[in-house]
Amino acid sequence: MTYIGIIGGSGLYTLMKETETINVDTPYGKTSDSIEIGKINGVDVAFIPRHGKKHTIPPHKVNYKANIWALKHIGVERIVGLNAVGSLKEDYSPGDIVVPDQFIDLTRRRDLTFYDGPDVYHISMADPFCPDISRKIYETGKSLNYNIHSSGTYVCIEGPRFSTRAESRLFHTFGDIIGMTLVPEINLA
To answer: Which CATH architecture is the domain 84-189 placed in?
Structure first.
């Protein structure tokens, strides 16, 4: 079966119907938590809580490789990652939804690729987000009258600490939103 993969926070549990919990052994260790299989509005979904069900895994300790590998292993072909972020842009308000189209990776200690063995591949990140999924998310958000932005640059920092004032001034010139979990999920997906 083909699922839409969702990686995000625990708030999604209440949206899922007909759920089943599965565990997947991966060559990269344990996933953040069990995978919940279910339906959201009739769509088959596989959900992983990025920080664990009890939110005990900080962003720099998430086993991103295991999460992505496990989703692919069970038949996921498309992944939607939901990220809590901040912004320093005056035209972005708390609660706004941003559908990013670019990112800047300022992480330092994360495993960014599956291709670090004898077979080396160079993956283009020129257009890192799926335009079909991005468009559908944006159109759905607009139809529901959400305050949603169709593009933006996500600055991903290592975490779990927040940025200093000097870093925040710099990030303001780099991008639109600041978070800690997009990278390496996007590279691995």
So the answer is: 3-Layer(aba) Sandwich (3.40)
Answer with the residue of higher pLDDT: 93 or 16. 93
Nearest C-alpha neighbor of 179 from the set 157, 146, 161, 164 = 157
- The DSSP string of the chain is --EEEEEE-GGGGGG-EEEEEE---BTTB--SSPEEEEEETTEEEEEEETTTTTT-S-GGG--HHHHHHHHHHTTEEEEEE----B---TT--TT-EE--SEEEEE--S----S--SSS------SS-S-HHHHHHHHHHHHHTT--EES--EEEEE--SSPPPHHHHHHHHHH-SEEESSHHHHHHH-
Which amino acid does the sequence have at 67? N
Instruction: Tell me where in the chain the CATH 3.40.50.1580 domain(s) lie.
Output: 84-189
Specify the pLDDT at position 16.
Answer: 81
Q: What is the pTM of this model?
A: 0.93
User: Looking at the predicted structure, is the pLDDT value of residue 11 above 70?
Assistant: no
